[in-house]
UniProtKB/TrEMBL annotation:
Signal peptide: none annotated. PANTHER family: ARABINAN ENDO-1,5-ALPHA-L-ARABINOSIDASE, ARABINAN ENDO-1,5-ALPHA-L-ARABINOSIDASE A-RELATED. Pathway: Glycan metabolism; L-arabinan degradation. Keywords: Glycosidase, Hydrolase. The keyword Kinase does not apply. Pfam families: Glyco_hydro_43. It comes from Streptomyces griseorubiginosus. One of its GO terms (molecular function) is hydrolase activity, hydrolyzing O-glycosyl compounds. This is Glycoside hydrolase.
Amino acid sequence: MTDTEPLRLPEMPLHDPFVVADEETRTYYLYTSNEPSASGVEGVGTMVYRSRDLREWTRPVVVFRTGEQEGLWARDGGWAPEVHAWGGRYYLFTTLHDESRPLPVPPAGRWGTPFQLPNHARGTITAVSDSLLGPFTVVDPTGPTPPAHLMTLDGTLHVDPAGQPWMVYAHEWLQTVDGTIEAVRLAPDLTATIGDPVFLFKGSDASWLGEQIPAGVPHQLAPYVTDGPQLHRTPDGGLLMLWSTYEKNTAGADGTVSGGYVQTYAVSKSGALQGPWEQRRPLVRDDSGHGMLFRAFDGRLMMILHRPFENARGKLYEMRFEGDELRVVRQCTDLDGDGTGV
């Protein structure tokens, strides 16, 4: 295959996908962590594929590299990149970490959990560019956007009805045991936080997860993973949050979690970010997750996620709302090349 031949989703390394449907150019920009074998560029960072039809994609272009950022506090990770238009510019959120920088263990029971595990510096940074193709430059190289003493990841942008921007992020189960979703207000230019984080919900609030804990594992000691929040307004004015977790939460001595990755969601019927949040049952299983919703140019509501967790590829689903319930219409196998169905 030559560099000019289009790619299809089964050929595209793709973890934690995020799509920007740019109306001006009628182009879909699909952001993911840099994969040197695909981009031809070494280093930790973000790359982007482009398409006019969600079927054929260009070879990826690198838009951000940690190695090009002077004085950056961490250079590993590059997880879960998202790009948001704000104030006439484009803002990249991506998660970095530094395993050589241990974090102090917070007091037990911060959100009602009994203990914490060893952890290290991890958090989402904010970078800015005048173009969807970058290059993106870190706003504050000295630390992540959420509080640096918290082990966090997967920050996403939410703007409330009053126009207040927030970063919504996952607080790692490695630090909390029962992982949480939290939010922190952002300054109008997204360059700093305002006030303390706000707790939204914890992983164990999803009652169906409790059904999956293996026999003999104390419920309060089972780790609950929270990953990949992304928010979307429902037609009736509610607020929906996609998030991902593991269906069977058993942890090994090395901190790994076993069990199937799943795409699930929660709804705030009040429409307020602060909730209360009602947990719904998973949308897609089969080791799938970290999805996001976007509108295709033909008006369809689409969800893209990755599957499987290792050596991931992008999968596309047509979605619909039934009140405040989100439903899968079909997997778009004509686009993602996967004939296995939902």
